[in-house]
Amino acid sequence: MARTASVKRKTKETDIIVTLGLNGKGIAEIDTGIGFFDHMLEGFAKHGFFDLTVSVNGDLEVDGHHTVEDTGIVLGQAIKDALGDKAGIKRYGSFILPMDDALCLCAVDLCGRPYLGFECDFNAARVGDLDTELVREFFYAVSYSAGMNIHIKMISGNNAHHMIEAMFKAFSKALDEAITRDGRIVDVLSTKGSLV
């Protein structure tokens, strides 16, 4: 299966198109209008081996909130659509990723239920043009749109750039593990028989 999805979402605040290939090579074309956010999504694609195209026209004259949150909504929907019925996948994934001074743990469960656990305090209000408080909003939106548990815990770190980059990369590695197929799983990995 190709495990791809393309999702469009247009509101008065944002106009977004996301195309995602889970069985990819890490190729990314990202344009959100927020340079550091683009860099984070490129890292997410590269380290998870996802092919990802993101095009966003957002109301950046207001601030970056709608752009970042709505991108999370659309990416989460693309993940959900690309996974389909989730038959044969491991479902769970986790990764501890070092990035210089930062050490981040991320664990995910593709259970069909949204939940975000987010433990991190940033020392800076912004990195480039990205408000650091929007990082949590992004992962919250992905979690609820994809229907997945995401737990992110910053074990240590001082530099906000390193901390955020560690989060995005740890998330990509954990997600890559969770979507991996296991030949021992004949249907879905749930006693309920469903992951929706």
The termini sit apart by: 19 Å
Number of DSSP strand runs: 10
**Low-confidence segments:** none
What general outline do the C-alpha atoms trace? globular
Class by SSE composition: alpha+beta
Strand order of the largest sheet: 1-2-4-3
Using the CA coordinates, give the radius of gyration: 16 Å
Average pLDDT, all residues = 96
SSE order: EEEHEHEEEEEHEH
Strand content: 25-35%
**Main β-sheet: number of strands, strand sense, barrel status?**
4 strands, mixed
Number of H/I helices:
4
Overall helicity: 25-40%
Features:
single chain; alpha+beta; 4-stranded mixed beta sheet; globular
Topology:
Blueprint: E1 4-10, E2 14-21, E3 28-31, H1 35-48, E4 51-58, H2 65-83, E5 92-99, E6 102-109, E7 115-119, E8 126-127, E9 130-131, H3 133-146, E10 149-156, H4 160-178
Parallel strand pairs: 3-4, 7-10
Antiparallel strand pairs: 1-2, 2-4, 5-6, 6-10, 8-9
Helix pairs in contact: 1-4, 2-3
Describe this structure in words.
Helices cover 34% and strands 31% of the residues. The chain contains 4 helices and 10 strands, in the order βββαβαβββββαβα. A 4-stranded mixed β-sheet has the order 1-2-4-3, with helices on one face. Strands 5-6-10-7 form a 4-stranded mixed β-sheet. A hairpin with a 2-residue loop joins β8 and β9 (130-131). α2 (65-83) packs parallel to α3. It starts with a strand and ends in an 18-residue tail after the last helix. The model has no long low-confidence stretch (mean pLDDT 96).
